[in-house]
Amino acid sequence: MTTIFASQALTANGWATNVRIVIEAGRISSLTSDARAETGDVAAGIVIPGLANVHSHAFQRVMAGHTENRGPADKDNFWSWRQRMYDLAGKIDAEALQAIARQVYGEMLATGYTSVAEFHYLHNEPGQRTTSEAMFEAIATAAADAGIRLTYVPVLYERAGFAQNTPSAAQQRFVRSVEELIAHYENVGKRAGNRLMTGIGVHSLRAVFPESLRAIAAVAKRDRVPMHIHIAEQQREVDECVEVLGARPVEWLFEHCEPDERWCLVHATHLDDTEVAAIARSGAVVGLCPSTEANLGDGLFPLKTYLELGGQIAIGSDSHVSVNPFEELRWLEYGQRLITQSRNVAAIRRPQTGRSLFDMALTGGALACGRSSDRLAEGGNADLVVLDDDSPMLAGHTTKSFLDALVFSGFSLPIDRVMVAGQWCVTDGRQEGREAAGAAYAAAAERLQLETVST
Ligand SMILES: [Zn+2]
Fold it and tell me: How many C-beta atoms surround the C-beta of residue 302 within 10 A?
């Protein structure tokens, strides 16, 4: 049993003071405000719930900073980046994946993510055609070692494009049949426990056949697990979808499937007004990854209209050019300010923009990871972040603006401790095993010879 005494805590009922939190078997067994500290309590300043990172490709962490040079064709865009990513992906074996994932999951914990949905399509080891569980094991071991809560989302990949019915050579190792993917998902599901859950998904409309999408969606519906898909990230993808399927991606999806609150539509950047309304009405969560979307030149999600219609959002760090939930929220808002020449765009359901963004990401993040709520409440998971209330970053702020300060000021987050499932993963700003993880990551980066991924 662990007990925490927080001067202030953001609970399911809002901010409370002098909060005593009792944690047993990974869950909050009692949460009492206006309480007194007792002997043995961990003295905490400000306690907030941890956020979910709903979209991760862990292996891409090792590419960060390696694709920022202009290519010889002078036409750098998402598709030229993707070729570089494939060059890297082709080299990642299970050993490298485990080292890279362990590093990035540790980085997530350090910045206040307490759970991650890993959108996984590197199913086979390099050069292998037969399926094995080694790549999944690498992800699961890395998450368990770091201590982060994992929603493992194996995704289907079948073909190179809407009109290309076979995968390219580089995509070959992403491929599993529908039956193989479902069998893999079911096998992993048998191991699900306190910190490991499963979802399922398809890579994108362009990468799977329509009947396969329906088969995977039926499994998600049957098992009531999250269903993830990349959608409408690039204009070219929208144009090709219209050309081949006769409808825009989100339009087609809603005509042929029934997305609901279990669905996570990743990016959903290029939408018309009808599509914005359809997603908002469905309750599906849009998984926004602002730092990656900016890095790849994707475009801007129509946030204001979507939020006005009651749409749900969550955030992800995707390619991990940034691993910081508060930076994702900041850039989500800043993109909107820049394009609308106005301020406080996301403050639609609450007057405070930082708090509003945090609350939306908390609610949508839980749903996209397969949980009903990540708020701090009795019976809920003990996944929380302790902020240092002596930090200059929070000086002069009160509960009214703590989250605005976290989103809109400072470079170094005042995170003192992080707990997942009742276990401290970060204590006094430090993580056990972080140095060894960093050394293994450096060795993997060295072995992958990333400089060859530069043209
Ligand atoms: Zn992605």
Answer: 19
* Token output for 38: 């007792």
Distance CA 94, CA 90 (A): 12
The rounded Å distance from CA 448 to ligand 1 centre is 21
Distance, in Å, from the CA atom of 195 to the CA atom of 413, rounded to the nearest integer, reads 25
Pairing of the two strands 200-204 and 196-198: unpaired
Distance from Cα 355 to the centre of ligand 1, integer Å: 26
Q: How far is the CA of 288 from the centre of ligand 1 (A)?
A: 10
Active site residues: 267, 318
Query: Is pLDDT at 317 greater than 80 in this prediction?
Result: yes
Q: Do residues 269 and 242 touch, judged by C-beta distance below 8 A?
A: no
pTM of the model: 0.97
All domains of the chain in start order, with CATH: 2-49+375-432 (2.30.40.10), 51-368 (3.20.20.140)
What DSSP string describes 399-423?
Answer: TTTHHHHHHHS-SS--EEEEEETTE
Rounded Cα distance between 202 and 414, Å, is 37
Residue whose entry in the numeric block shows the structure tokens 């191991």: 191
How high does pLDDT run on average in the chain? 95
Could you read off the pLDDT of 234-290 as tens digits, one per residue? 999 999 999 999 999 999 999 999 999 999 999 999 999 999 999 999 999 999 999
